[in-house]
Amino acid sequence: MRQIVFALTLFGAAMLAMSGLTADEPKKDEAKLTKKEIAKMMKDAHDGAKSPHARTLAELKKDSPNWEEIAKDAKAFTAMSEAFKKVNLNYKSPDKYIESAAALNKAAGNKDKKAANEAFTGLTKSCASCHSYGGVPGER
């Protein structure tokens, strides 16, 4: 009987030790991104005639936007928002971008052109507030 109690005690202690070791390991989703990775994401989402930014701008100029396309492109802005949360941007707060990306995503889901235009304008202004006014070193 003592051997069984001893074995169960050892097993329990081993399980506690194992759970304690894995609890402190950072999850991959929580990993911090580098500024280089953020820069690549920014370029992919905002730069060029075929970027989500350019496509969204073009769709919102139409009388009847393609809401599926806007919703698809809004995901790139949402991903950028999530990335902003994983990097230290000590020169500017990404809050307006994050807020505007969420609003654009909601407006696309609701097929609300007015709200989508307001959100997209806010998103664009949040970029300009950082890039145009010396916020990002070397990106003026």
Give an overview in words.
- The chain is mostly helical and 140 residues long.
- Helices cover 69% and strands 0% of the residues.
- The protein contains six helices and no strands.
- Helix 3 packs across helix 4 and helix 5 packs antiparallel against helix 6.
- It is extended and about 80 Å long.
- It starts with a helix and ends in a 9-residue tail after the last helix.
Q: How would you summarize the topology of this molecule?
A:
Layout: H1 2-23, H2 35-46, H3 52-61, H4 67-84, H5 95-110, H6 113-131
List keywords for this structure.
extended; 140 residues; mainly alpha
The proportion of residues forming helix, as a percent range, comes to 55-70%
Sketch the topology as an H/E string, one letter per element: HHHHHH
Strand content: under 5%
Number of helices: 6
The residue-averaged pLDDT reads: 80
Radius of gyration: 23 Å
* Low-pLDDT sequence parts: 21-26
Name the shape in a single word: extended
Give me the secondary-structure category.
mainly alpha
Tell me how many strands there are.
0
End-to-end span in angstroms?
Answer: 76 Å
How is the biggest beta sheet arranged? none
